[in-house]
Amino acid sequence: MRARIKWLDHMSFVGESGSGHSVVLDGSPEHGGRNLGIRPMEMVLIGMGGCTAFDVVLMLQKSRQSVVDVEVSLDAERSEEIPHVFTHIQVHFKVMGKNLSEKHVERAVKLSGEKYCSASRMIEKSATIDYSWEIEETL
Description:
By secondary structure, the protein is an alpha+beta fold.
């Protein structure tokens, strides 16, 4: 896996992934940024959310669950001291579908957090991570 970060100006950067995708990163105005893009630590949190969402959707599909939508909300706290690492993250899954099994959803969320999500496993070195989920029945 590779990535490249190119400084634009002020505190703005373009991050390019090895797979050919780009994202704008920028700092807050109090740190010289112009609020033109995502903050780097927000990107880390989004990466973790995407990683665990990917796992959960894949496991539910393999379990033949009729999933129609998944939303993952993450709320993170950071250390007051430098480096401002994550110290606690609350991850909440909202899984929508038809006749979803509570057992399958719970198992998928737990397996992602405890075994499969590489990002979560790295971040848990500095932060406690709590997972919750809800199921919403769709028509």
